[in-house]
Write a structure and sequence with these properties.
Helices cover 26% and strands 34% of the residues. The longest helix has 18 residues. The chain has 2 domains: 224 residues, Rossmann fold, CATH 3.40.50.300; 101 residues, Nucleic acid-binding proteins (OB fold (Dihydrolipoamide Acetyltransferase, E2P), Beta Barrel). Helix 3 packs across helix 4, helix 3 packs parallel to helix 5 and helix 4 packs across helix 5. The chain starts with a helix and ends with a strand. The chain is elongated, with a radius of gyration of 25 Å. Bound molecules: adenosine-5'-diphosphate and magnesium ion. Magnesium ion (MG) binds next to helix 2.
């Protein structure tokens, strides 16, 4: 932090009522003019509550992921934001405008569907230009816009190809171009990478992030893949059973998960029943969450370490996943450099443990919060 920023925050601290608290509503999330603001979104389908009183605020220019397991309600939420599904109740504002009463075609948003939904008989250029044709834009104007957006997604050379003749990654970019050509204020993508192979996924997620930042477009991406969400997003809303469990930056979700669900879903975790005290696990009713990187190994005794036996080793490329048996627990650790073997004797210390009670984080490293 620079000196200037320190001074500014100190100033704000002296006068909290002036600017800090002014825009906040008395109850509910902060109102803002830009971006997306969802309040009290609710949907029952087939007699079941699928989306349960959901609030979400996305700042202008921000990329937010809705991350959660299959069936938790991500697509349903996105379809309501886009206007393809009517909410039972709740409000959806885009750049300060209430849109929940508008049809999809009249909303300032554009959606990229999970299966791309390209028209097979149309060329790439026709597919991309179609939303503009619907808006009765002139042919030359459509052509100019389509060329510009195909250039942006590096597909100009394929403008006359049919979708079946191009690769999955290219089809994905056509679907993205068809959304971007509408110059939406809000871009919505449903599992945009799920149909691509692992290597291409990394490339395309970088492409999407770069284009999103270049255009500064407010974006909501639905995904069940935590690595994808972590690598692309400014913030992640972790969803579970129609609710948002936690809404934070990728770093904060990993370092300070508020619930056991979030801790388990984001990253890797040893889950042990017990109590954590002085580096040792004893019997207890709580759930302990220990990240594998917080299990430290050494080949001779060191502070906090207990003897441990290597039971299983799983090669993971640049590191090994090592399953250990210690007197108080079975633990998993990540090891780089040294090659470990099953049966090997070692020493293991637990550097940090999260304590969950009734699913909520109550303590970190054994010390009460
Ligand atoms: N039209 C529908 N009628 C009944 N149940 C539905 C309907 N659409 C979705 N659901 C249910 O809502 C839940 C959430 O679905 P969805 O939003 O597609 O989940 P996700 O995208 O997170 O995998 C699922 O249990 C699904 O079966
Ligand atoms: Mg889905």
């Amino acid at each position: 932090m620079t000196t200037h920023e320190s001074l500014t925050s100190a100033e704000l601290h002296d006068r909290p009522a002036a600017s800090d608290n002014a825009p906040a509503a008395p109850d509910g999330p902060t109102l803002s003019n830009g971006g997306l603001n969802i309040r009290g979104l609710h949907k029952v389908l087939g007699g079941r509550t699928i989306i349960d009183n959901l609030d979400l605020a996305v700042k202008e220019g921000e990329l937010v992921s809705l991350l959660g397991p299959s069936g938790c309600g991500k697509t349903t939420t996105l379809r309501m934001i886009a206007g393809f599904l009517e909410p039972d109740s709740g409000s959806i504002e885009v750049e300060g405008q209430e849109v929940s009463h508008l049809g999809a075609e009249n909303r300032p948003s554009a959606m990229v569907f999970q299966n791309y939904a390209l028209w097979p008989h149309m060329t790439v250029a026709k597919n991309v230009g179609f939303p503009l044709k619907l808006r009765k834009m002139s042919k030359p104007a459509i052509q100019a816009k389509v060329d510009a957006v195909l250039e942006l997604v590096s597909l100009l050379h394929h403008k006359d190809s049919k979708p079946a003749r191009i690769s999955g990654g290219e089809q994905q970019r056509v679907a993205l171009a068809r959304a971007l050509v509408q110059e939406p204020k809000l871009l919505l993508l449903d599992e945009p990478l799920s149909n691509l192979d692992a290597k291409l996924r990394v490339k395309v997620r970088e492409d999407i992030r770069n284009i999103q930042q270049e255009l500064g477009i407010t974006t909501v991406i639905v995904t069940h893949d935590q690595e994808e969400a972590m690598s692309m997003s400014d913030r992640i809303a972790v969803m579970n059973a129609g609710r948002i469990e936690q809404y934070s930056t990728p770093e904060a979700l990993y370092a300070r998960p508020e619930t056991e669900f979030v801790a388990t879903f984001i990253g890797s975790m040893n889950r042990v029943e017990g109590r954590f005290h002085d580096g040792v696990i004893t019997a207890g009713p709580d759930i302990l969450g220990i990240r594998p990187e917080d299990v430290i190994l050494g080949d001779s005794p060191f502070a906090g370490a207990l003897p441990a036996t290597v039971e299983r080793v799983v090669p993971r490329g640049h590191f090994q996943e090592v399953y250990l048996r210690r007197a108080d627990a079975q633990l998993r650790s990540f090891v780089t450099g040294e090659i470990m073997r099953p049966g090997q004797q070692t020493y293991a210390a637990i550097r940090k443990a999260m304590t969950f009670r009734d699913g909520r984080l109550v303590a970190e490293a054994g010390a009460a919060r």
